[in-house]
Amino acid sequence: MNLLHFVGYFATGLAFCFMVLSLACGLYYLAELVEEYTVYTKKVIKSMTIFVVALHVLLCIFDRLPVLNLLFSIFCHGVYSLNLATFPFIRLTSVPFLSSCVLVFVDHFIWFKYFTRHYRPFMDIASFFGVCVWLIPFTYFISLSANDNALPMM
Predict the structure, then answer these.
(1) Residues with Cβ < 8 Å from 115, sequence gap 6 or more?
(2) Which of 3, 4, 18, 99 makes a 20 to 30 Å CA pair with 136?
(3) CA torsion angle for 69, 71, 72, 76 (degrees, to 10)?
């Protein structure tokens, strides 16, 4: 090995560190926005959930994804939406929150199992997981910090 390989490894490590730092800064900024605009955030989460559920229906029609898996994912998004009833006050011991935590992993496992048995290009799978499986739970995860700074309501 020559010196250029070590420079390449060092640059790759440095780029990875910058990427992680950028992601952390972006998440911090999103959490600040959620804390500042809780009413608007609730509307955005509701609209995103409607979009994702509509996308599930379209995937059933056009891409012929399994109906039972899609119905389960729609059910999961319905359970996630139960957390909006008390938003931004999400109690970590409430039934909707605990159910959401379990259903995120079950939904991920069901779709992972499906895509390991049925070939699709990696970009399709990554996009599906990012938008249809992880987007809404990740949004709720970011919005958990809004609970700490919200004023109590009567």
Answers:
(1) 125, 128
(2) 18
(3) 130
- Write the DSSP assignment of 42-90 as a string of letters: HHHHHHHHHHHHHHHHHHHHHS---HHHHHHHHHHHHHHHGGGGGTT--
Q: Residue 47: CA atoms inside 13 Å, Cβ hemisphere, count?
A: 6
Compute the distance between CA of residue 152 and CA of residue 154 in angstroms, rounded to an integer.
7
Is 131 in a helix, a strand, or coil? helix
The 10 Å Cβ neighbour count of residue 107 is 23
Encoded amino acid at 15, one letter: A
CA distances to 17, 18, 20, 142, 143 from 24, in Å: 11, 10, 6, 12, 15
Digit-coded pLDDT (tens) for 101-143: 999 999 999 999 999 999 999 999 999 999 999 999 988 888 8
Q: Report the alpha-carbon distance of residue 83 to residue 139 in Å, rounded.
A: 12
